[in-house]
Specification:
Elements (H helix, E strand, L loop, with lengths): L2 E2 L12 E7 L2 E6 L5 E3 L2 E2 L1 H10 L2 H10 L1 H15 L7 E5 L5 H8 L3 E6 L2 H9 L5 E3 L13 E7 L8 H11 E12 L4 H6 L12 E2 L2 H10 L2 E9 L5 E2 L14 E2 L5 H4 L3 H4 L17 E8 L2
Parallel strand pairs: 6-7, 6-9, 7-8, 9-10
Antiparallel strand pairs: 1-5, 2-3, 3-4, 4-11, 10-15, 12-15, 13-14
C-alpha cells in the first residue's frame, strides 16, 4: 500500500507537528498551530479505495445486513428531522455504501443521489435498491453542480479523507442557501481514548483525520458554514485492535474489554449508535464517542 505525506488538513501548514504516538509504523501527529490530529504519512486515496473495494466489503456488508432493521428505524428518525429543510427535494449521501439511507429517503419522496468508492457496494445500491449512486471521488464529480441540495450527509466518512476541508467546501457549494450538512464521525476527545490510548480500535490507518468538537467547528467555519451544532453521544466502541485493516483479506474481530458481554456486543456497533448509552455532552464535557454535526449554508 502506498503512503504519502500531507499538509495539516485544517490550517495547511506542513512542518509544525508533534508526534502523539506511532502505531504499526503510522505516525499520529497533532498540528502545533491549530491542534488538528491526523496520520502523516498516510495511505493514499488510491490505496484506501482499493482496501474498501477488495478487502473490507464482504464483512462490512454482512454486518450491515444483520442490523438493517434497527438502522432503518435510526435513519427514519433522522429523515423526519430533515423534513423541515425540504424545498428542492434533493438529498445527497456522500460515502453512501450500499445505499440504505438513500433507499429510506426515496421511500419518503426525496430525490436521492449518492457517491461511493466501493464498486461492489455501488453495484448493490444500483441493482438491489435502484438508487442513483456514482462511484468515485466527490471532488472529481461535476454532475451534481447544477442541483441545489436540501441536505448532504456524511456518515463515518470525513475521518477517512485526506483533504476533508476540500470536501466540505464542495458540500457547501452543492447545498442550496439554508441547506443542511449532517455528519457523524468519531470524537478524538472521547472517553475511551483516554482509557485505551492508541490501542483504541478507532485508531487505524483508514481513519486519516481525527476531529475534536473544536477543530470540527473551525473547519466548518472556515468553509462558510453557519448555525453549527455539535454534540457527542455514546460510549462504544470500547475495543482495541493491534493490526491494520489492509493487513489481511478478512477484517479481524476487535478484542473487547474483558468485563463487557462479548456475545451481546458482537456485530452491534451500528445498533448502539441509534441509542444514547452515554449522556450527550455529559456535565458540559463532550466525551461521547460519536460526534454528531449539523451546520447550514447561510441564506
Amino acid at each position: 500500500m502506498r503512503t504519502e505525506r500531507v499538509k495539516c488538513p485544517l490550517c495547511g501548514q506542513h512542518t509544525k507537528e508533534a508526534v502523539l504516538w506511532i502505531k504499526n509504523a503510522y505516525r499520529y501527529v497533532q498540528c502545533t498551530v491549530c491542534g488538528m490530529i491526523y496520520i502523516n504519512p498516510q495511505l493514499s486515496d488510491e490505496s484506501v479505495a482499493q482496501i474498501y473495494s477488495n478487502v473490507l466489503y464482504g464483512q462490512k456488508s454482512e454486518r450491515l445486513d444483520l442490523v438493517l432493521p434497527t438502522l432503518h428505524k435510526y435513519k427514519a428518525r433522522l429523515l423526519k428531522k430533515f423534513e423541515r429543510f425540504r424545498k428542492t427535494g434533493y438529498l445527497l449521501d456522500v460515502g453512501c455504501f450500499k445505499g440504505f439511507l438513500l433507499f429510506s429517503a426515496s421511500q419518503r419522496g426525496w430525490k436521492t443521489f449518492g457517491t461511493e468508492v466501493s464498486e461492489p457496494a455501488t453495484r448493490f445500491a444500483r441493482e438491489e435498491l435502484e438508487q442513483q449512486v456514482d462511484i468515485g471521488d466527490l471532488l472529481h464529480m461535476s454532475r451534481f453542480d447544477q442541483l441545489d441540495f436540501d441536505v448532504v450527509t456524511l456518515f463515518d466518512v470525513i475521518e477517512h479523507l485526506s483533504r476533508p476541508c476540500l470536501y466540505l467546501q464542495k458540500v457547501h457549494y452543492l447545498l442550496r442557501k439554508g441547506g443542511l450538512l449532517y455528519m457523524e464521525t468519531p470524537n478524538f476527545n472521547a472517553l475511551p481514548r483516554f482509557v485505551l490510548g492508541k490501542k483504541w480500535t478507532v485508531f487505524n490507518s483508514l481513519h486519516r483525520s481525527y476531529f475534536t468538537p473544536s477543530t470540527m467547528a473551525r473547519m466548518l467555519q472556515r468553509v462558510g458554514f453557519e448555525s453549527i451544532k455539535i454534540q457527542t453521544l455514546g460510549f462504544l466502541p470500547l475495543s482495541t485492535r493491534e493490526n491494520e485493516p489492509e493487513s489481511s483479506k478478512v477484517k479481524p474481530e476487535p478484542k473487547f474489554l474483558r468485563f463487557l458481554p462479548i456475545d451481546l456486543l458482537r456485530n452491534t456497533k451500528d445498533i448502539v449508535e441509534s441509542a444514547v448509552f452515554f449522556p450527550p455532552d455529559f456535565l458540559g464535557i463532550k466525551v461521547g464517542t460519536k460526534m454528531v454535526v449539523r451546520a447550514t449554508k447561510g441564506a
